[in-house]
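Input record, target 12 of the design panel.
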């Protein structure tokens, strides 16, 4: 018999959890076996799963960001193309989060869920902007790791990764070392994710038992918010870029990259789609090998517009669901952390969900929100990966065009 995929198991865990919670919820209070033994046991399983997720964050983020930054290669040689590419990647990603936040605000998907949380749900006191900026820079990177201060870890990792390139041969060794650690951390993630179907079952069934049917409707809204946001971003941002810099029509662009977009949607992996993306951009759009072989692999590693947009929608959803008021300053914090988190997201299925923990923790939102979103992650991942790959191809075409390359008609 074919082995059931993990994603299917997680989805089953999610659905069974909801059903179990709905059935058991109303009778739990009147049964001492349920309320004294079974429900506390399920609760324990859910809490262990949350801790395992949190355990991953610091080593995973640090190692994958160092490896990602170092994968840029020879900084001097890349020169202008590198700076242009990075700037375009960051700008499009930030726009994507803003669209995500707008969709999250409009759909207001988590409103009325009123889920209480025991953890760090309280909104942070608004700090003066100077302190917010100052806080990004660590004084002691080890302390940042011990305290899981994500922004500081990211900043140090970026310095460290770039320095690995500048340090030449010896730096290469260090970068390789961190790449190995990142790979090992992905394996640890896989081990933890094997536990996800049970963890998701536990967390969602406890929630369903407490809140009943009213928790279903918000998920439909989250999916709609992410899909509409992704469609808007692709149509507005990429069409404009292609029109402005490449002097080509949106139809030319979307027709040219169609296969890579579909591959990304079904594989839910930017890295896995890379061979198709490379061939689409070269054969259909006419970008040179030189530009595409630098811009696209880098994009598959660090440029995740769809993931960033999704993180914007989901951070708002969690804030709404747990009734945490989000100030404008916190929303600005989301734009910054989600931009950086998307840089550190690996181009593999489900990586964005793990990185969402980073965004939530850094703005002080409850990490329990991940459990709510895990069950629908497959649906969200397909759309965000599709936009991730489209973003790489659009930037690639723009860079080629501004470098004077003659694109296909
Ligand atoms: N699956 C996405 C990708 O490969 C990453 C994510 O999970 O957001 O691009």
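The sequence produced for target 12 reads:
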């Amino acid at each position: 018999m074919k082995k059931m995929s993990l994603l299917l198991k997680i989805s089953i865990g999610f659905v069974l959890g909801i059903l179990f919670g709905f059935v058991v919820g109303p009778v739990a209070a009147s049964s001492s076996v349920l309320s004294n033994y079974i429900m506390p046991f399920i609760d324990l399983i859910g809490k262990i799963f949350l801790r395992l997720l949190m355990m991953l964050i610091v080593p995973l983020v640090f190692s994958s960001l160092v490896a990602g930054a170092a994968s840029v290669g020879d900084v001097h040689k890349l020169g202008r193309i590198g700076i242009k590419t990075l700037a375009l990647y960051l700008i499009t990603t930030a726009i994507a989060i803003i669209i995500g936040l707008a969709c999250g605000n409009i759909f207001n998907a988590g409103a009325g869920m009123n889920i209480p949380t025991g953890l760090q749900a309280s909104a942070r006191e608004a700090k003066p902007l100077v302190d917010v900026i100052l806080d990004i820079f660590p004084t002691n990177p080890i302390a940042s790791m011990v305290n899981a201060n994500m922004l500081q870890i990211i900043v140090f990792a970026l310095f460290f990764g770039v320095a690995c390139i500048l340090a030449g041969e010896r730096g290469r060794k260090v970068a390789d070392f961190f790449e190995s650690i990142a790979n090992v951390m992905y394996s640890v993630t896989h081990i933890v994710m094997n536990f996800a179907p049970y963890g998701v079952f536990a967390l969602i069934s406890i929630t369903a038992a407490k809140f009943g049917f009213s928790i279903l409707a918000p998920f439909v809204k989250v999916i709609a918010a992410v899909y509409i946001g992704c469609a808007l971003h692709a149509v507005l941002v990429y069409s404009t870029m292609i029109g402005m810099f490449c002097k080509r029509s949106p139809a030319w662009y979307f027709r040219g990259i169609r296969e890579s977009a579909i591959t990304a949607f079904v594989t839910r992996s930017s890295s896995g789609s890379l061979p198709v993306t490379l061939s689409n951009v070269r054969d259909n759009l006419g970008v040179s090998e030189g530009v595409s072989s630098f811009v696209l692999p880098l994009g598959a590693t660090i440029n995740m517009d769809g993931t960033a947009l999704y993180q914007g929608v989901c951070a708002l959803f969690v804030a709404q669901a747990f009734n945490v008021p989000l100030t404008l300053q916190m929303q600005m914090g989301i734009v910054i952390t989600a931009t950086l988190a998307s840089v550190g997201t690996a181009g593999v299925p489900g990586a964005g969900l793990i990185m969402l923990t980073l965004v939530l923790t850094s703005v002080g939102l409850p990490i329990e929100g991940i459990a709510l979103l895990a069950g629908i992650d497959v649906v969200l991942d397909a759309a965000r990966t599709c936009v991730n790959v489209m973003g790489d191809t659009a930037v690639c075409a723009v860079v080629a065009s501004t470098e004077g390359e003659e694109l296909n008609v």
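The chain has 18 helices and no strands.
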